[in-house]
Design goal:
- With 244 residues, the protein is of the alpha/beta class.
- It has one domain (23-241): Rossmann fold, CATH 3.40.50.1110.
- 53% of the residues lie in helices and 11% in strands.
- It contains twelve helices and five strands.
- The chain has helices at 2-18, 39-46, 59-62, 73-85, 103-108, 110-113, 128-133, 137-153, 167-172, 176-188, 196-205, 216-241; strands at 51-57, 91-97, 121-125, 157-161, 192-194.
- The protein has a five-stranded parallel sheet, with helices on both faces.
- Helix 4 runs parallel beside helix 12 and helix 8 (137-153) packs parallel to helix 10.
C-alpha cells in the first residue's frame, strides 16, 4: 500500500513542478482583459499554428530591471501561455523593447520590429516617454492611431499597454491625460488596453507591492515579481479571448 502512495505523491510533485504556479497578485476584476477581439490570435489556435507575439515598447518591455532576460514580462508571458495552450505548436514571444523610445521612435521601427515579423498579436507598451516629455496630446493620439491602422492593415491583433505605476514617478509626471488619450484612441479603433498603471496602483494601495525599494537586490526581485504578475494577467486575458 505504501509503494502506490509514494508513486502518487511523486506524480503530484512532478505535475506541480511542471505547471506555471499562479502568482499571488491577482488582477483586479474590473481591470482584467475579458473581451479582447483577437481574431488573428484565435486563428493560430484553430489552424494549429505557432502563436507569435511581439512585445513592443521601451525600457519596461526590455526589462533590464530584472537582470535576467528569462524573467522579463515577455519571457514570462511566453512561459505562462505555453502552460495554458500547450507546447505544440507552441508560443513565441519576441521582445522588441528599446530603452527611452517614445512613440515617434517606435513608429520608425514598427515595420522592421513588428510588421515584418508577421506576428498574430502585438502588445504595445507606449506612452511613458511621451508623458515624461510632455508631448502634445493631439499629435500623440494621431501618431498612435496611425500605428494601429498600420498594424490592423497587416492583419495583426493589437493590445495597448499603458504606463507602469510608481509613486515617485507619478508624483512628478502627470500621466492622467496620456492614460485618457490611450483609452480614447483604443475605443475609437476597437482595440483592448491592458491597464497596467491602474493595476499596479491597485497593488500598491492593497499592499501587495511596495514600489519604494532602495537596495539593488530588492529592486531586482520586485521587478521580477511584477513582470511575472503582469505576464500572468496578460496570459489569462489572451487565453480568455481565444476561448482557452
Amino acid at each position: 500500500m505504501i509503494r502506490p502512495l509514494i508513486g502518487a505523491f511523486i506524480a503530484v510533485l512532478m505535475l506541480t513542478s511542471s505547471a506555471e504556479a499562479a502568482p499571488t497578485c491577482p488582477i483586479p476584476l474590473d481591470l482584467m482583459i475579458d473581451d479582447a477581439d483577437l481574431p488573428a490570435t484565435k486563428a493560430t489556435q484553430t489552424n494549429h499554428q505557432t502563436l507569435r507575439i511581439v512585445a513592443f515598447g521601451a525600457g519596461s518591455t526590455l526589462g533590464q530591471a530584472a537582470e535576467d532576460p528569462a524573467l522579463t514580462y515577455p519571457a514570462r508571458l511566453q512561459a505562462r501561455l505555453q502552460a495554458v495552450l500547450g507546447t505544440n505548436p507552441g508560443v513565441e514571444v519576441l521582445n522588441k523593447g528599446v530603452p527611452r523610445d517614445d512613440l515617434q521612435q517606435m513608429l520608425s521601427r514598427l515595420g522592421r520590429d513588428v510588421i515584418d515579423l508577421h506576428p498574430a498579436l502585438v502588445i504595445w507598451d507606449v506612452g511613458t516617454n511621451d508623458a515624461a516629455a510632455g508631448r502634445d496630446l493631439e499629435s500623440f493620439a494621431a501618431d498612435l492611431e496611425s500605428g494601429i491602422i498600420r498594424l490592423k492593415a497587416a492583419g495583426i491583433d493589437v493590445i495597448l499597454m499603458d504606463m507602469q505605476y510608481a509613486p515617485t514617478t507619478a508624483s512628478i509626471i502627470n500621466f492622467d491625460p496620456y492614460l485618457e488619450t490611450l483609452d480614447r484612441v483604443a475605443d475609437l479603433d476597437n482595440v483592448t488596453t491592458f491597464h497596467r498603471f491602474a493595476i499596479m496602483h491597485q497593488w500598491s494601495d492593497d499592499g501587495v507591492f511596495s514600489y519604494n525599494k532602495t537596495l539593488p537586490d530588492e529592486r531586482r526581485e520586485l521587478a521580477r515579481e511584477v513582470y511575472d504578475c503582469l505576464a500572468a494577467g496578460l496570459s489569462d486575458g489572451i487565453a480568455t479571448a481565444i476561448g482557452r
